[in-house]
Specification:
Blueprint: H1 3-12, E1 32-37, E2 42-47, H2 62-81, E3 87-90, H3 95-103, E4 111-117, H4 122-133, E5 137-142, H5 145-149, H6 151-161, H7 167-172
Length: 178
C-alpha cells in the first residue's frame, strides 16, 4: 500500500497527481492510454491530447484568462439548463454546486434542489439557505438508520455500477451532524 496515497485520500477525499493507493501503481495523465508490447515486455504511455496544444497563453493577462473561464462556464451552464425538462440539482455546501446554482438565470430556470445527509448536518443547512437565497424549492433527504444498515451493500452496488468510480464519493457521501 502507498501511505502517501492513503493519506491524500483520507485528507482530501481524492488522490493527487499520479498517486494511487498502491505503491507501484501510478495513475495515467489525462487523455492518455497504455500499450503493452508483449514481445519486448514494455509499457508505453501515449496521449491523444496535451494541454500545450491550446497555444501559448503565457502573454495573456491573468484577468483576461479568468474572464474567459467565467464566460465559458456560464455558457456551459446555460446550454445544460435550456429545454423543456424539469431539472433537479444535488445541492450541498460544496463549491461546485454553489457555483453552478449562482451561474443560473434564476428568472428563467425553474429547478428543484435536494440535499442528502444525516438530520441537522451542515450540507442540509447550507443547501436550505442557498435554495432560499435563489428562490428554489428544496427537499432535504434525511438519511436514517436504514441507510447505514444497508451502507456496505449500497456502496458495493454503486462501485459495481460505476466500475469503481463511485468509491470515493460513496465513502464521503454521508455527512454527520455538526
Amino acid at each position: 500500500s502507498n501511505r502517501k496515497g492513503i493519506a491524500q485520500f483520507l485528507t482530501f477525499g481524492q488522490l493527487l497527481g499520479q498517486d494511487t493507493l498502491l505503491t507501484d501503481v501510478r495513475a495515467l495523465p489525462g487523455a492518455a492510454w497504455v500499450t503493452y508490447d508483449a514481445a519486448n515486455d514494455q509499457l508505453s504511455v501515449d496521449q491523444y491530447w496535451r494541454s500545450n496544444q491550446v497555444g501559448d497563453r503565457t502573454r495573456v493577462p491573468e484577468h483576461e484568462l479568468l474572464d474567459e473561464i467565467d464566460q465559458v462556464f456560464h455558457r456551459a451552464v446555460e446550454r445544460r439548463v435550456q429545454g423543456p425538462e424539469r431539472l433537479g440539482m444535488s445541492l450541498s455546501g460544496g463549491l461546485d454546486s454553489r457555483t453552478i446554482l449562482a451561474a443560473m438565470d434564476h428568472s428563467r430556470t425553474p429547478i428543484t434542489t435536494v440535499s442528502m445527509g444525516v438530520g441537522g448536518c451542515l450540507d442540509h443547512r447550507c443547501a436550505e439557505q442557498l435554495a432560499a437565497c435563489s428562490n428554489r424549492q428544496h427537499h432535504c433527504c434525511v438519511l436514517d438508520d436504514r441507510v447505514l444498515e444497508q451502507y456496505e451493500e449500497s456502496l458495493r452496488q454503486m462501485v459495481r455500477l460505476t466500475d469503481g468510480h463511485y468509491l470515493s464519493q460513496g465513502i464521503m457521501q454521508y455527512t454527520m451532524p455538526a
